[in-house]
Design a protein that fits this description.
Blueprint: H1 30-49, H2 61-85, H3 94-135, H4 142-157, H5 162-175, H6 187-215, H7 233-250, H8 259-278, H9 286-334, H10 337-345
Helix pairs in contact: 1-2, 1-6, 1-7, 2-6, 2-9, 3-4, 3-5, 3-6, 3-9, 4-8, 5-6, 6-7, 8-9, 9-10
């Protein structure tokens, strides 16, 4: 796991992409304005629930799980809005479709990177289980085996995951597309693009925080500037500042970011010298050995449970994105020529969907 202390790096700030909308709801019918308000109020409520009472809870599997659950809900909300707008895909501007398909591929790639890192951490857990199993055995070489397993964990947790490292550039690319196409003659299109901006901004924020927590580096954090003309803008800015500040403070000289990983690392560092001193001479200080072993066993169990739950949420989000993409492509098939054109630009056997 990378622990490099990279210089503070942020994505380019993005303002309100709908500058032509001088006031929210300008030129919108009461029905469209109500749909937009409902979406933005729901988004604000979801963001508000993500701010924990204790800042240290940000860097935990439980917060990350809640953040991904919120993303799934937000992506479901945009589907509800699209249905309510009664704006058939055949009426979508080609630019909207192009942006949506391109962004969905990026999100799938990011999900794959997260899944890869979660799988890698699960592999590291095997070293811990082997060490604990060795210490409960009666073999004369149990301390040698335990020390070897602990060495394996230390090496594994300190290594880098290329897929996770590569997803940082994917998120930068995603950030550059936040400024969506301008809408001139379609009120429904304006509502749709405005809502999609909210989905993209929150998705980018959560994914960047997720990557920073998993990598142990704040270099992937985004600082998206959102206009207060959105009903969710102030809540978003408050949450983003809260979360990013805590992550940056915690990565300053820290070996691990996530609390569950930090607890395991601490347990290993306490147990390792005790096991090392026992090699060749037998147990010295049985009470200390038992205490350190029990502490590591407890932290390893919490670590494993958190990983499993988080992995399921990431898989769920992957399916949400993939389902939405497939639904759009199915609707495009009805358009015949339109689908053929989009299929040329966005191959289904691309880097994420293969």
């Amino acid at each position: 796991m990378s622990r490099s202390q990279d210089p503070h790096k942020t994505f380019l700030p993005f303002g309100n992409p709908f500058r032509m909308m001088k006031a929210k709801g300008s030129n919108l019918s009461p029905k469209l304005l109500d749909l937009l308000n409902t979406f933005e109020e729901t988004l604000s409520a979801r963001l508000n629930k993500l701010k924990p009472a204790n800042k240290k809870d940000v860097l935990s599997f439980s917060w990350m799980k809640a953040a991904i659950e919120s993303l799934c809900g937000i992506h479901a909300d945009i589907k509800v809005l699209i249905t309510a707008l009664e704006l058939p895909v055949c009426d979508w501007d080609d630019k909207w479709i192009d942006v949506y398909l391109d962004n969905s591929v990026k999100l799938l790639d990011i999900c794959i990177a997260f899944t890869s890192e979660i799988s890698r951490l699960k592999q590291g857990r095997l070293f811990l289980q082997c060490a604990l199993h060795s210490l409960t055995g009666a073999s004369s070489n149990k301390f040698v085996s335990a020390r070897s397993s602990l060495d394996g964990w230390r090496k594994h947790v300190g290594s880098k995951n290329p897929k996770l490292e590569n997803c940082f550039s994917v998120m930068e690319s995603l950030a550059r597309t936040l400024d969506l196409p301008k809408i001139k003659n379609s009120s429904k299109g304006k509502v749709l693009m405005r809502a999609m901006y909210g989905v993209k901004a929150v998705t980018l924020f959560v994914c960047s925080a997720f990557a920073a927590a998993l990598s142990g580096s704040a270099k992937s954090l985004s600082d998206v500037q959102v206009s207060e003309t959105y009903l969710w803008g102030e809540t978003f800015a408050d949450l983003q500042t809260f979360v990013n500040t805590e992550i940056r403070n915690s990565t300053n000289g820290s070996f691990a970011v996530l609390k569950e990983i930090e607890d395991v690392v601490t347990g290993v560092e306490k147990l390792y010298p005790v096991v090392r001193d026992c090699v060749g001479v037998g147990p010295v200080g049985d009470e200390e050995l038992m205490k350190c072993t029990l502490d590591l066993e407890k932290s390893t169990e919490k670590f494993a449970d958190g990983l499993n739950l988080l992995g399921k949420e990431v898989d769920g989000f992957f399916q949400v994105v993939l389902t939405g993409r497939d639904a759009l492509l199915c609707n495009l098939r009805v358009g015949g020529d339109v689908f053929d054109q989009m299929r040329t630009n966005h191959r289904l056997d691309g880097q994420a969907v293969r």
